[in-house]
Each structure stands twice: as structure tokens, then as C-alpha cells.
Amino acid sequence: MKLKKLMALTMAGVMTFSLAACGGGSGSTTDSGDSGETAADEGGEAASGDVEKSIAYIVGNLGDKSFNDSGETGMVQLREMGWDCKTIEAGDETKADKWEDTMLDAIDEGYHFIVASSTYRDIIMKLAEEYPENQFVVFDDSMDESEIPDNVAFIFYAQNEGSYMVGQLAAGMTESGVVAVNVGMDNPVISDFVTGFINGVQDYDSNVKVVKASVGSWTEPAKMKELCLTQARDQNADVFYQVAGGSGTGLFEACVENGTWAIGVDSDQYAYYKDSENPELADVILTSMLKNVGDSLVAFFEQVEAGDDVWGKVNRLGLKDNAVGYVDNEFFQENVPQEVRDKMAESKEKIASGELDVQSYYDFADESEYQALLDSVAP
């Protein structure tokens, strides 16, 4: 049985998705799960008064300069389009016992659409049954469609496709013949990133080895930095790809210290850090594998307004939908040889057209096949 058929049994928790506030009416509102403050009127109705265009995003924490902030642009756009959006920062995994209450508060306030990342999938599936009049969106996740209720929609990204191309980049840029992919936590979605990356590396140069490790948290940059320094010292890794949320900052710090290259994820992390208080971090980031969360959420709610068939199913988005990709900016062009850039561009065209089918974690029959892939490329 394919792993995609097992998704209903697995909570595919990934980087907690945090969005900037987008409030209806006079301005934007962000709510912290601990504060008790809300964007709703005292009477409990969504701020705009238009229940059918009210969205409550249950998210983790803002400011990761990665997956979370990628969705922020979508919320800004939706507000400008007339949607009443409220973003609630529910906190990290240490606040997990309060996540369900946070969602219930949003429902009580009159928000019709409840949207959250795969981290909250189990809670959403429970509440979808208890509140059939509401509609729920789980993004960055997949499951057997026969088990998805009619008031739930999934948005799933082909992160393996974007990761394949940056895997080619890593293989083309390494001088030591060893590259690394380091993650925040292991779960099926993250394993899909890793699978695509390894296949990109191997298809570019089968002699290049791949080190893979997890720090066990999305919010431990210090631990990530130490991990990368160790990999560079003991295994000679010289190109590092991070899929680690807030922990990813530590990877960039290690690359600055070691003089090695880095690859970001989800958002244009070069641009983020170039304009930050730590601009030196930008100067090691060759590119970032993009997961255009904001664009996909805007497109999804445009489909909802149009009455399209999006409920009770997995809405799959890949390279051909501009849902994933990589940053092709001036820094990338200046530092990556033309030969490597041409190979990545060729793969982009082939993937989008369907000529190239990138292997996915969900193609494996079981976890042992994925582990065999990891073992086959280890130094």
C-alpha cells in the first residue's frame, strides 16, 4: 500500500504555520492564544459581519522568515479583497493542550472558515464533525480522500518537485562531494522534501553523498548551528539545505562561520535576511526552495468564491501551479555557474510539463524504502 493511503493514520505535523493578521473593517488584528483578546465584536460575530467571508487562521508564531511568513502575504491580499481575516497565534508545541480551545473560541466568535496547517490536522478533523455548519481547511497535508468530510478541504504542495531542483544546485556547488539536508522534525511532509532533494542530488551527480539529520524542533537555532558545524567538521559537508522553520537560522549562522553555502526554504530567505539586523546571513544563501503558501491560499479562496469543487478532497499544487519553485535572483545568478542554472531551468520546464516525474515520499510502499534511500546516499 502506498504511503499516501496511510496518511489518515499519521499526523503530518510540519512547521507551524503563522500568518500576519488581516482584520476586517478598519484594520488588521492578531490574537495571541494566551491574551484572550479577539478581533470580533463583543456580540461574538466576525468583525466584518459577513460570516461567509470570515476566516480564522490558527497559527503558531510569527516571524520565522520562512514557512509562516510566506503565508502572511496571502492574508494581506485576502484582506484587500474584502475578506474578514483573523490570525490567532496559538503558540508552539508546548501550548498544544490549548490548541483546540483556541479553535473553539474562533468558532464561537462567528468565524466561518477555520484554516490551519497540518500540525492541527487531528483537532480540525474532530471539530469538523462537531461543527458541520463551519468549513475547515488543512494546508500542507494530504490524506485518503475517502476519509475527508464534506466540510473539510486539504491543500497539498509538491515540495518534492522544488526540492529536486535545489538538490541539483547542491550537487553542482559542492566541492567536497558531501551535502546536507537538515530538518526541524521528521514527518511525512518533511520526508517528501528530503526525498526530492536526494533525487535531485543523485540525478545531477550520483557520486555526491547526502547527510540528513533532524534537530527535533522548529525553534532551536542553536542546536541546528551545532549540528551543521559538526557535519562540516566530521563529514566534510559544504552545502546545507534547511527545512527547519525557526531552527533554520542556526544553519545559516553555521555556514557564515564555516564559509559554506546554504539553501533556504519556503520564502526568499536571502531577501529576508538582507534587510534584517543580520544581513551577513544572506550572503551564504544561494537560493531558497519556494513554497508559495500565500499565493495558494489566495487562489483557494478565489475558488471558494467561484463555487469550485474544493471540499472533501485534496487540492494538489505543484510546480505547474507556481505553488513551488526556487528563487532566481541576482545573488543566485552571480554565484551559481551557468551550467548549474541551465540544468535547474531544464528540470523546471520538464517537471511543469509532466515530462519529468519526481519521486515522492508518498511513492514508497513503507518507511523502510525511505530509509533505504537515506542509507544509499550516506557518506
Automatic annotation (TrEMBL):
Annotated membrane topology: Lipid-anchor
Signal peptide bounds: 1-20
CDD domains in alphabetical order: PBP1_BMP-like (cd19964)
Record-linked Gene3D superfamilies: 3.40.50.2300
Record's compositionally biased regions (Low complexity): 28-38
Ranges in a coiled coil: none
Cellular component, GO, one term: plasma membrane
Keyword Signal: yes
Keywords from the named record: Cell membrane, Lipoprotein, Membrane, Signal
Segments of this protein annotated with the region Disordered: 26-47
PROSITE patterns in alphabetical order: PROKAR_LIPOPROTEIN (PS51257)
Subcellular location: Cell membrane
SUPFAM superfamilies, sorted: Periplasmic binding protein-like I
Ranges for domain ABC transporter substrate-binding protein PnrA-like: 57-350
PANTHER family: ABC TRANSPORTER GUANOSINE-BINDING PROTEIN NUPN (PTHR34296:SF2), TRANSCRIPTIONAL ACTIVATOR PROTEIN MED (PTHR34296)
Record family assignment: Belongs to the BMP lipoprotein family.
Protein name: BMP family ABC transporter substrate-binding protein
